[in-house]
Amino acid sequence: MSDPIAGQDTKPGPKALHAVPDATPVDLDAAFRDSHVQEVLDKLDRELIGLKPVKTRIREIAALLLVDRLRKGIGLTAGAPSLHMCFTGNPGTGKTTVAMRMAEILHRLGYIRLGHLVAVTRDDLVGQYIGHTAPKTKEVLKKAMGGVLFIDEAYYLYKPENERDYGAESIEILLQVMENQREDLVVILAGYKDKMDRFFQSNPGMSSRIAHHIDFPDYAPDELVAIARLMLEEQQYRFSSDAERAFADYIIKRMKMPHFANARSVRNALDRARLRQANRLFAKPGAKLTKKDLVTIEAGDILASRVFTEGAPDTEIV
Q1: CA dihedral sign, ordered 245, 246, 247, 250
Q2: What are the pLDDT digits (tens) for 266-317?
Q3: Fewest CB within 10 A of the end CB: N or C in the chain?
Q4: From residue 11, how far is each of 71, 94, 111, 141, 218 by CA, in Å?
Q5: Is 24 helix (H, G, I), strand (E, B) or coil?
Q6: Which residues, at least 6 apart from 282, have a Cβ–Cβ distance to it below 8 Å?
Q7: Are the CB atoms for 61 and 187 separated by under 8 Å?
Q8: CA nearest neighbour of 219 among 82, 52, 106
Q9: Phi and psi (nearest 5°) for 189?
Q10: Which run of H or E residues covers position 189?
Q11: Mean per-residue pLDDT for 180-191?
Q12: Looking at residue 184, what DSSP letter applies?
């Protein structure tokens, strides 16, 4: 087997194993610097508020792969590490963003050739009639080769209650590729934890190929407010002090309502707040506006939300 980094034979026979003295120095710090993985980890810290357990696990996986790379460099190997993963958690907890950064890490350490992410759902993989599923699944796999395939809500691939469903065919193709071409493709399955657990129980072949399970916790209210500030900063807006307090109240109320989706719901709420701000400014024809007016979300832009109205409907409430 060839080292994807150095391009040299790394399969250790008995002589090769003993050819390198145990006292051979290995500079782990230099290898870590040269990999530029820290840049990706720093980017992840900037992009995502909180998620400490997730970030810790990503660092642990990066450390495992870096050590594996160093071992190969001196003729040691324990076999190619399995890299297929499962991300579980509620919507809006950062699973897709972490998958993107994971692809970067794997690329920088030489475990995938290209480092791109292809994100799909059941509709991208499963056809609606006989003979349609295999070409669809294989086309997606072709696009993902050399990178990471991220399958969101992966449990929808398996629908045993429908005898005419073709998801099982897609799963079978995925299983073959995950096993036979695991050195050129990493698959990340994602979705709600309870549904993914049932999916693995029904598909032991898939479960046996997943090496890393990472659970994404829901955000706390203060983390969601911090996420809102970060999102506004990226869009060159800001809260007034009263608006930030109003948004903190909004979050507490919204979290108790149906269909709450963490950062996704925060983004939706901010989009509506910007809409209200724009209409508030237009309601004052002839008024002299300043930059401050254009960038500031005021408390009224938040408090006008239906979240503060009793009996709001059972939908995505903004």
Answers
A1: positive
A2: 999 999 999 999 999 998 888 889 999 999 999 999 999 999 986 554 455 5
A3: N
A4: 11, 38, 17, 29, 44
A5: coil
A6: none
A7: no
A8: 52
A9: -95, 145
A10: strand 186-191
A11: 94
A12: T
